[in-house]
Amino acid sequence: MNNLDLNLLRVFDAVMRERNVLRAGQAVGLSSSAVSHALSRLRALLGDELFVRTAAGMEPTARALTMAPLVRDALVSIERAVGPQIFMPEISTRQFCIAATDYMTAVVLPHFLRALSALAPHASVTILPATRIDLTAQIDVGRIEVALGSFSNIPHRLRAEMLFEERDVLMVAPDHPLAGGTITLDQVSTLPIFVVSAGGLEDGLISERGLTRRIEMFDRVALEQAFEKIGRTPDLKVIQPHFLAVPSLLAGTSAAAIAPAHLAKIFRRSGSVAVSEVPWTMPPCAVQMVWHERHTHDPGHKWLREMLEDAAQRVHGASVKVRI
């Protein structure tokens, strides 16, 4: 410890988050050569390569992956000890990082960004895809401050709060023969079905570092059980990862798509789809925000969570009943 320069850990933390020497230097106010020199010193001190340069960026070694969350916790503790105890959004230049799908970006974040523009005009936001495989690792090392989605089996080091409940609806092209009326289960069973899945896994779930998250916003089990009762199997014709592509994919086809009700409402307003209730019973899906416990008492992070809560309430407060 007597030979350890705290700035070496700041550089390590930045490279771990950015996986890029240039961006890490920008994050801590150092040149690329200074970052490389600091990494060399830390490598010599710890006797480990820490990062290996690849075509995809600076890939951490096993030692670096073990160190990363511990170093991040330590740096946050130091920042909390010596930093300001209040957050003043009107003058803050803080950059927030949120992980969200295109669905959450379209439904919740517009309300949040309008509030940010009015209340914290000098702050900025980076939105990363919540579909990335290393989502939990990025929360652990501090690159992602809040992740929006549907989660379960949440480990003790993470905190979660429900924002609202979502449900499925059916969408078809506006000129579809079934547009504008109630669509029955027998009718749906004759149609190709488009769904959104970030990974195409059969159970619609992925687990990383103790955190389980849904990568499908439709209830596959409820769909299959409903079709089984009438002796049919759903024809999942297109499985793709982008919610915002669904109206374009439906255009000119006889297909129906399953989508979250709040997003379908936005599409219907633009005239790009017709919407109907799903003709089967399913439980609602809880939409949550998840963050690392180390951020819980940080004033700026608390403000961020409050703004996201308010944005979610604005979404959920509006009626999403399907009008036929």
Strand content: 15-25%
Structural domains: how many: 2
- The CATH architecture term of the largest domain is 3-Layer(aba) Sandwich
- Residue windows where pLDDT falls under 50 for at least 5 positions: 318-324
Please list the strands of the largest sheet in the order they lie side by side: 4-3-5-15-7
Q: What form results from the Cα inertia axes?
A: elongated
Structural class by secondary-structure content: alpha/beta
- Using the CA coordinates, give the radius of gyration: 23 Å
Q: Note the total helix count.
A: 12
Query: Considering DSSP H and I runs of 4 or more, what fraction of the residues is helical?
Result: 25-40%
Write the element-wise H/E pattern from the N-terminal end onward: HHHEEHEHHEHEEEEHEEEHEHEHEEH
What is this structure's SSE topology?
Layout: H1 6-18, H2 21-28, H3 32-46, E1 51-54, E2 57-60, H4 62-82, E3 95-100, H5 102-107, H6 109-119, E4 124-129, H7 135-141, E5 146-149, E6 151-152, E7 158-166, E8 168-172, H8 185-188, E9 193-196, E10 205-208, E11 211-214, H9 220-229, E12 236-240, H10 246-250, E13 256-260, H11 261-269, E14 274-277, E15 285-292, H12 299-317
Parallel strand pairs: 3-4, 3-5, 9-12, 9-13
Antiparallel strand pairs: 1-2, 5-15, 6-11, 7-15, 8-13, 8-14, 10-11
